[in-house]
Amino acid sequence: MRLADLWGFCEAQTMSEVSPAMHEEFVLPYQLPILQRFGLNSYGCCEPLDRKPEFLMARVARLRRVSISPWADVRRSAEQLQGDAIFSWKPNPALPAGVSFDEDAVRRDLRETLKVASEHGCAIEIILKDTHTCNCDTQRFDRWALIARSEAEDFAGS
Question: What is the Rg, in whole angstroms, of the alpha carbon atoms belonging to the chain?
Answer without folding.
Answer: 17
